[in-house]
Amino acid sequence: MLALGLVLNTLGIGLFCWAIFALAVYALPFFVTLSIGMTAFRSGAGLIGALLIATAGGALTLVLGQVAVAITRSLTLRIAIATAFAVPAAVAGYHVAFAVSQIGMPSLAWREIFACLGAICVGGTAWTRLAAFVEPRPFELGRAVENPSQPILSAASREG
């Protein structure tokens, strides 16, 4: 029975860690959703209205961020957008790692060290998921090029 408990605990912690890293990109839209929802509720929009406005604001934040990263050609702008998404993810990673490290570590210094490492890992995951340094796909007159990976010289030699 003890072995089953250890295996299930290990699987549970692994699933929890996977969820943290998989959901890291959504920290900024979640914070925006929460802020808009609380502001709308306090201003008298009611529960249903606040939920609708907050959901629309969070979805708009996520979509605009992903579209901006996908279509911009400026590396500086891509870094700024990726940073805007990675910083809230790092803050969330810090707090999750700090809370989880309180379970097994009595020393405050070690909890802070593990929390900082968690912030770096989760923020880095959000950064890489946005693919900040990947070249954007080329566009022609509002539509994507069919085969953008074809070398330019070989394409020119085949066409004439």
Topology:
Blueprint: H1 2-22, H2 27-42, H3 46-71, H4 75-104, H5 108-129, E1 139-140, E2 143-144, H6 152-159
Antiparallel strand pairs: 1-2
Commentary on this structure:
The protein has six helices and two strands, in the order αααααββα. It has 160 residues and is mainly alpha-helical. The chain is 77% helix and 2% strand. A hairpin with a 2-residue loop joins β1 and β2. It has a two-stranded antiparallel sheet.
Which characteristics define this entry?
160 residues; mainly alpha; two-stranded antiparallel sheet; 6 helices; globular
In short:
With 160 residues, the protein is mostly helical. The protein contains six helices and two strands; from the N terminus they run H-H-H-H-H-E-E-H.
Assembly classification: single chain
Please tally the β strands and state the result: 2
Spans of at least 5 consecutive residues whose pLDDT stays below 50 are: none
Number of helices: 6
